[in-house]
Amino acid sequence: GFSRSRFVIDDDLALLREVNAKNPFEDPAKWNAISAHIQYATGKSFSSRAVRDRCDLLLVQFAHEDRTTIKKSGTEEQHNEKHHLLEGITELAREASYRIRQTVAKKVTSSHTPLRVEAATERCNPSVARDGAATAVLVEQNASVTPLETGRTCATNASTSQADVSHDSSNVEQLSCDLAPGDTVISLQSAGSSHSVCSSPPQPHNTQPEPCHATTEESSQQGRQGTKRKECDDSIAFFERLLQYEKSCKEKEFELEKRRLTLEENHLALEWEKLEQRKREWEAEREEKAEERRLKIEELAERRQQHEEVLKERAEERQIFLEQQHALLEVIKSLIPNGK
Questions:
Q1: Contact residues for 150 (Cβ-Cβ < 8 A; gap 6+)
Q2: Can you say how many angstroms the Cα of residue 233 is from the centroid of all Cα atoms in its chain?
Q3: pLDDT class for 232, splitting at 50, 70, 90?
Q4: When comparing pLDDT for 186 and 312, which is higher?
Q5: Which residues fall in a coiled-coil region (predicted)?
Q6: Helix/strand/coil for 314
Q7: pTM score over 0.85
């Protein structure tokens, strides 16, 4: 079995990178491969169900624009990377018509609805509330508000509330994931109902309705645009730092490669010099041996010549000796009488 392990920011980033790369929304069997890779990368034990539930939870938090929960820990660069990964995964889930499990979504909606109500209440512009209170006093004094104006004000509030509900509903409906057996599709009215808290209910004709939130919606829209602009600026700054870092790494690699080539060239030059020295020594040794061999040949030739001279002298001496012996025999023959 798997022991219970907690996800930290590094685990979330590793999970989101794998999901963005493998896109398990089209093939649920890929969750097993993602789980195995996460276990290998983090050294923790996560089941495929836990990995999938964690991905669903991050997607729902992202759909609810829960920046506080998403940015509980980690650096700004990690948050920016997490935001970009969630944007890409949201697009993949939308294309695959992925449906979020009810158990995961209930945790997020139940924990975020009170927060959204408080946020919607605080989003009301104080200046608009003061203007509405002053208008109510004038109405009580002059009683000049007509039913048409009251209905128009209520219609404005209702349209603003309906726009907020449809906006949140569209954000979460696009992220609905495959349901397990027995699960049902999540109703998104709970997420959208938080925006309707600030909208005023229908009022009787004799009372002034609460101030409408057109200005509040514009200010919140501007705030969201400012947040998105800041996120874009942070992303641009992050990528600029990343490019600068990669550039410095490439420059260092270039310098190291240059030094390596220089050292290799010097090494080759030294080896060439050693080879030249050995060649010179070998040539000198060969010349010395050739000279010794020449001297030895000359010495042998001289000895042979001397030996031939000695043999020649001995042959001459032997010839002289033979001639002397022959002459001596002739003398002896001449001295001895013929008859004797």
A1: 203, 205, 208, 209
A2: 22
A3: confident
A4: 312
A5: 265-317
A6: helix
A7: no
